[in-house]
Amino acid sequence: MGKRTRRRFFGFLGAVGVGGLLLFGSRPVTADAASNYTKKGTVFTLKAKSGQEISKILNKTIIAASKKASANKPYTVKLKKGTYKLKWAVYMYSNVKLDATDVTLKCVSKSSAMLASRNTNSKKTGGYKATKNISVIGGTWKGNAKNTACMFRIAHSKNVLLSGCTFVGSGSVHQVEVAALAGFTVSNCTFRDMKSGKGSSKKMEALQLDVCCNSHAYPGFYVDGTAMKNVTVEGCTFKNVPRGIGTHSMLFGQSLENVTIQGNTFTDLEEEAVIVCAYHNCKIMDNTIKNCGAGIVFQSMKQNPGSSVYSTILNGKKTYNGSFVYDANSVISGNTMDIKYKTTADQVIGIKLLGYHFENAVTGYDKKKIKAGNYYLSGMTVKDNVIKTEGLGIQITDVRDSSITDNTVQAVGTKESQSIVMITNESKNIIFDRNTVKNSRSNGIIVQKDSTAKSISGNTIIDSELSGIKLVGAVVTDINDNVIKKEEKEYSCSDGLYVDGDSVVVNVTGNHISDMQGYSIIVKSGGTIKNYGENDVPEDSDLIR
Predict the structure, then answer these.
(1) Residue 541 backbone dihedrals phi, psi, to 5 degrees
(2) pLDDT tens across 437-453, in order?
(3) E-strand stretches of 128-278
(4) 20 to 30 Å CA-CA from 346: which of 118, 241, 326, 480?
(5) Rounded CA gap, 190 and 176, in Å?
(6) Where are the beta strands (DSSP E) in 309-360?
(7) d(C-alpha 538, C-alpha 62), whole Å
(8) Distance from CA of residue 449 to its chain's centroid?
(9) Counting Cβ atoms within 10 Å, is residue 46 exposed (0-12), middle (13-18) or buried (19+)?
(10) CA–CA dist 131, 119 (Å, integer)
(11) Which residues, in sequence order, are bridge partners of residue 62?
(12) DSSP assignment, residue 53?
């Protein structure tokens, strides 16, 4: 990174706390600030008029409140109803709540965050030790399109709450960026109208759950690789932003722990509503995704580690000694998706689960080698989701010991021609049961590329233009009790079950297959069905060829 860019990143923090002073540029501001607020009990109310620039007096008041506050007796700094300007970052201290209900705050800086946690680049503020018990309640926070800093930037803290806040605009890569937090809740907040990255080179989440291991992303913070854990994002609205929630960077051997993303609404996004990288014990549940380029992407490893995978901390000075976690033990359930074709999305898809198998060592972002190996994803449960998609529906790539059950996947539009459900690239021991798959412009379900499934059973597959179920270089134990049929399309359903020559099925029984243009069940030369039971197919149909 050139010097010019590095200076710009350091500007993200705006002001830096030193001892009992806050330094704004070169001007010291003392913390003796009783004239800036009125006090009633544990509430400090800022003395300010609507339209005023308040960053200095608000920082003084927060410091004053923090000196009185404790974990058992938190203090509140309250803003009166009105509109205020912020030229410098507002710094949050421990045991303080900032109440901005019915308030609009406008960023008038080109280089400073609007709000940040108090941090220094010191081991003393590493881990979760910098601050604790901080809350921001309400407020419409309006970013500046010319500002290069994230609106909120919080790290190395315990018990952080954002509730009822509205974030509008921003010229930075994220609206809210956090890392190294133990206990982070975002409740009933709105993220909207953020500038698009316009392509894969600038992937930007409105709410970024980040990794603090290199000062490229976290200048001014202690970059010790501390994990995010115990995160809840619930009841929030994401509208007209590039991406919604997520993590596109990772520290090899570290996971984000206990993350719940539930009951949120994502509308008019160019890319993914939720993007996950190296999460463990995660729940993505009951979200509504409308007119978005992609739904949920859950990955154990990045396909291109050189773009955003670290294996070191402290700016490359120390190798991180964590263990890669294969078992995500995570659930994606109850989500409703309307996926539209967007040219900026990496892949137009409802749900994508993926790991990666590197035949050779690869180089990470910090120029360190990550050894060759199969960094597969396992322990995933995908259930009860409803997906309408102009692209793909569900793709399972290098995933093991996972189940996809009771989902409804329907293709709409004509943009994509790939199979609507894909199990591919060495995926193993997959259960795909009781799903409804409709209107695929290719195959309904395809299992391929050395993948295996325990069961493909109890599914209803309607109006696939090619095969209902197709196996190519795959092994499946049970293909039982599926319904494969034509319902509305005049020219659909070439074959019901297509078993390629390199594929093996142990049991095929109880399937109901009707109105195929080709064969109900076709086995290519060299393919194998070991046990062929009773299946309901037309009497005049060639069952096996």
Answers:
(1) -85, 140
(2) 999 999 999 999 999 99
(3) 131-137, 140-142, 152-163, 166-168, 176-187, 190-192, 205-210, 229-234, 237-239, 243-246, 250-251, 256-262, 265-267, 272-277
(4) 326
(5) 11
(6) 309-310, 312-313, 318-319, 327-333, 336-339, 349-354, 356-358
(7) 77
(8) 27
(9) buried
(10) 8
(11) none
(12) B
Q: Which residues of the chain have pLDDT under 70?
A: 1-33, 196-203, 416, 491-492, 539-545
How far is residue 372's CA from residue 356's CA, in Å, rounded to a whole number?
A: 10
Q: What integer pLDDT is reported at residue 197 of this predicted model? A: 57
Q: Which helix (H) or strand (E) holds 448?
A: strand 445-448
Residues in the chain: 545
* Helix, strand, coil in percent for the chain, rounding step 5: 5, 50, 45
Residue with tokens 């290519």: 524
Q: What angle do CA 290, 295, 299 make, to 5 degrees?
A: 165
Whole-number pLDDT of residue 27: 34
The predicted structure's pLDDT at residue 200: 45
What confidence score (pLDDT) does residue 33 get?
Answer: 58
Are the C-beta atoms of residues 294 and 316 closer than 8 Å to each other?
no
What are the tokens at 127? 């881990």
Strand partners, 207: 176, 245
Q: Contact at 8 Å (CB) between 254 and 48?
A: no
Q: Are 227 and 257 in contact (CB under 8 A)?
A: yes
Return the amino acid letter for 18.
Answer: V
Q: What is the pLDDT of residue 102?
A: 98
What pLDDT, on a 0 to 100 scale, did the predictor assign at position 538? 84
Q: Residue 218 has what pLDDT?
A: 85
CA 161 to chain CA mean position, Å: 19
> Could you tell me if 488 and 515 are in contact, meaning their C-beta atoms sit under 8 angstroms apart?
no
What stretch of H or E contains 487?
none
DSSP codes of every residue in 73-106: S-EEEEPPSEEEEESSPEEE-TTEEEE-TTEEEE
Residues 6+ apart with CB under 8 A from 59: 15, 22, 29, 88, 90, 91
What phi and psi values does residue 170 have, to the nearest 5 degrees? Answer: 125, 145
Residue type, 413: G
For 91-125, how does the pLDDT look when each residue is reduced to its tens digit (9 = 90+)?
A: 999 999 999 999 999 999 989 999 999 888 899 99
Structural Rg of the chain based on CA atoms: 26
Q: What secondary structure, in 3-state letters, does 131-161 show?
A: EEEEEEECCEEECCCCCCCCCEEEEEEEEEE
Q: What is the rounded distance in angstroms from the CA atom of residue 157 to the CA atom of residue 221?
A: 12
Q: Which residues of 349-358 are buried (b: 16+ CB within 10 A; e: fewer)?
A: bbbbbbbbee
Match 């293909």 to its residue by tokens: 479
Question: Which pLDDT score, from 0 to 100, does residue 542 have?
Answer: 53
User: CA 13, CA 116: separation in Å to the nearest integer?
Assistant: 7
CA distance 333 to 445: 20
Q: Which pair of tokens denotes residue 337?
A: 């998706």
CA 113 vs CA 3, 47, 174: distances in Å: 20, 22, 11
Q: Which of helix, strand or coil describes residue 256?
A: strand
